[in-house]
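Good morning C.,

I know you're traveling, so I'll keep this short. The sequence:
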Amino acid sequence: MLSGMGLKDTTLLSIGAIGLINPLYTGGAMVFPNIAYTTGEVFGESADGYMLNLFVTKPIGDTGTFVQAWPEYFQAKGDTVEMESRSFNVMLNAPIKTDRTQWLMTKLEYGSADIVTPSGVRLEGDLELTAEIGVKWFF
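The tokens, ready to paste straight into the viewer:
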């Protein structure tokens, strides 16, 4: 969508706070509300905004396997640029080894992103489904 438009890079820094709602009140799920302030450059132009998430994590069995789901909203605006995205994510992660140094990581993300370029061109992204699968090693 953006290739060939000659846009500068986007570099953002987010600083936020995350909380934990006691699993006694959430049916055993760990619920983490998150809010973050974001600042930096969108396509080379100064911008700031925020990000909101609500992470819900539920262990499956006693091996360390867990499922995590969360909605995410992100917005950053400057004088001439804008970025906004909405997504819903689901992860299923499981240890491959009993010492938990190797994990199977899977993620599905369904969402879209809209932007306004420095020249004022508005691009509305289509909803997309992205699937990721991989292995992580922890030392």
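Safe travels,
E.
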